[in-house]
Amino acid sequence: MISLYACRGSSISPYPSVNLPRSFKSSQQRFTVRLEGPNRISACLGLEREAAGSAGKSEKSGLGATSKEMMELEGKVVVQTYARVPLVLVRGKGCKVFDAEGKEYLDMGAGIAVNSLGHGDPDLLKAIEEQATTLIHVSNVYYSIPQVELGKRLVKSSFADRVFFSNSGTEANEAAIKFSRKFQRFYWPDVKLPAMEFIAFTNSFHGRTMGSLALTSKKNYRSPFEPVMPGVTFIEYGNIEIAKNAIQPGKTAAVFVEPVQGEGGIYCATKEFLQALRSACDDAGALLIFDEVQCGMGRSGYLWAHEAYGVFPDIMTLAKPLAGGLPIGVVLTTERVAAAISFGDHGSTFAGGPLICHAALAVLDKIQKPEFLASVCKKGQYLKELLVHKLGGNPHVKEVRGLGLLVGIELDVSASALVDACRNSGLLILTAGKGNVVRLAPPLVISEPELEQASDILSNCMPSLDGNT
Ligand SMILES: Cc1ncc(COP(=O)(O)O)c(C=O)c1O
């Protein structure tokens, strides 16, 4: 198991030497920021948390003919599940993407925390080309070398003994749901109704298929499709006492938790919370499942975000960045869990195909390097400092938080006007939470000057929030 990287330490703070209160002056107020680790990386502006905001508006002005044509056609032929921003992207290079009219944008979203190596990484392209010309797909009827190699590497690099491949984050979680139920049946064969229920948390996001959706906290994602999988209890993220009471022997099959919540608004768990979940699961015979689909694979500055906490799961799910933009999902599991799974219990036609796995090996090769992970820690810290310095004095900014290069800026209003203004100024950013959190999840290869450029544009665009609710 590889668990020590440049961010190691008894505290989860990557930089004890910079773990000092820092004072920044802004035109409007003076405030202090403490950089203390994932549970406390925040700019303390002394403001109350408050929900706000509506989703982003789209406007079609300023678009070229190709973009307009593509958007209109999309409106006719694609099922309208996405409220897209009015931007047609055609090309990418490094941390930049280009629209159909050739305008350049700095990409601080990385395809929703996917393109960790940026766009057009030469080693990733080489791996894809190599494998595409050798063998793309065989199905899981046969063995294939890249799948076995990737499995071996993931096992070697983590707590896990075995892996199961899928095609996306939601599918990885779906498999983890099935594995949890099978685990309970396998180890309690004489119990008529073994533990079959799940615990998930407020602000959680685990996917859109029926099982993962049932674990996703936003009610309006679930309600149009009910009944979803029954037996899920949602508990306040971080509330140790309620969690301890809720995790019950004979009832709870598994607890699903994101060590750093992404879609829900960039909330970092505390070490005590994850430790309490670990021991409550052990006492109850329940499985602890870390969903690292968004925060895993280097984004936190650790290869796996849970390494920052020193708490280990029975199952971890991964997806987004693992194959550099090609679709992949993985369930990593201990032998104890894997022993409960038999031939035919689960499967997928595409999963773990040679092309995807060979690409993922190239991504893992780069991200796993201690110096790469150290650079993510350093740049994440720098980004937070820049944001606090440049935006901290703005009355709309309530908090800057996050771990590594997954950073949230909580606002007291909807972020949509800021997203639009930044896009018009050549910067792509995401939102999270109730639309009031700016989410920054840039390619992990981003440079410090690019981080400065992003924070300058954000700072210049802050007036767009004035007068918004
Ligand atoms: C933590 C987490 N889990 C699961 C998912 C679902 O992944 P996918 O969209 O690949 O199905 C996401 C997607 O944003 C996620 O952030």
Q: Mind explaining what this structure looks like?
A:
- With 469 residues, the chain is an alpha/beta fold.
- It has 2 domains: 16-107 and 370-465, Aspartate Aminotransferase, domain 1, CATH 3.90.1150; 123-367, 3-Layer(aba) Sandwich (Aspartate Aminotransferase, domain 2), CATH 3.40.640.10.
- The protein is built from 14 helices and 20 strands.
- The protein has helices at residues 65-77, 110-113, 122-132, 145-156, 169-187, 210-214, 219-222, 240-246, 271-284, 335-338, 354-367, 370-391, 416-424, 448-461, and strands spanning 22-25, 30-34, 42-44, 89-93, 96-99, 104-107, 162-166, 197-201, 232-235, 252-257, 260-261, 267-268, 287-291, 315-318, 329-333, 397-403, 406-411, 427-428, 430-432, 437-440.
- The strands form 5 sheets. The chain has a 7-stranded mixed beta sheet with strand order 7-15-14-13-10-8-9, with helices on both faces. The chain has a 4-stranded mixed beta sheet with strand order 4-5-6-18. The protein has a 4-stranded antiparallel beta sheet with strand order 16-17-20-19, with helices on one face.
- Helix 4 packs parallel to helix 11 (354-367).
- The longest helix is centred in the last third of the chain and has 22 residues, at 370-391.
- It starts with 21 loop residues before the first strand and ends in an 8-residue tail after the last helix.
- Bound molecules: pyridoxal-5'-phosphate (PLP).
